[in-house]
# Entry
Amino acid sequence: MSTLDDAVVALSAGQPVVLPTDTVYGLAVDPTRPGATARLFTIKARPADVPVPVLAADAAQAFGLAADVPDVARRLAERFWPGGLTIVVARGPDVAFDLGGRLDDDTIGLRVPDHDVPRELARRVGPLATTSANLHGRPTPETAPAVVTELGSTVAVVLDGGRCAGAASTVVSCVGGRIEVLRVGRVSQDEISAVVAGEDPPTPTRTAVPFSSHEGRSWHGRSIP
# Structure
């Protein structure tokens, strides 16, 4: 298997890297490198109209990609980052990352993972466009050797972090003045509701404050680590 230095070299050359996260194994690229995101979509056999979220080193790096960060998004980040919550916000007008998706889509999914490897790479390379390390529509393998078997020789750099068998991240949209749970994963709906309501600690029996919930549906698609 490879080292962090190998991963930095590959990412800087626009090549995809397999890395462990606190949820599942991810397939990451530096979205500022020409052609990198297209390679990611090709490896996964994933439709290019399904956007890829971004993993960041910390909240400052993540929210630096946003046009507007509502107070509720900051509260959610303070409570659940680093961790298993992807927050969708309006994308900054100067963020020219290729993340796939529709041409008229001006949002971006952001997460700070609770794992040293992706955070360190994001510190050294920049925010990483990351999707789950599997072929589109298939379960994500739980080990690095299994990822290699799944993806074959299409990825030169694989970082082995042991078994990654966690639940995928919860996805919450904070766009347009609405809080919408797009997918329930690592963070429960009750926990999200409590933060939105200004409560701490979460109170699972409390009726949630108004927001839409679509359990099982992710942000414009699937495969968000």
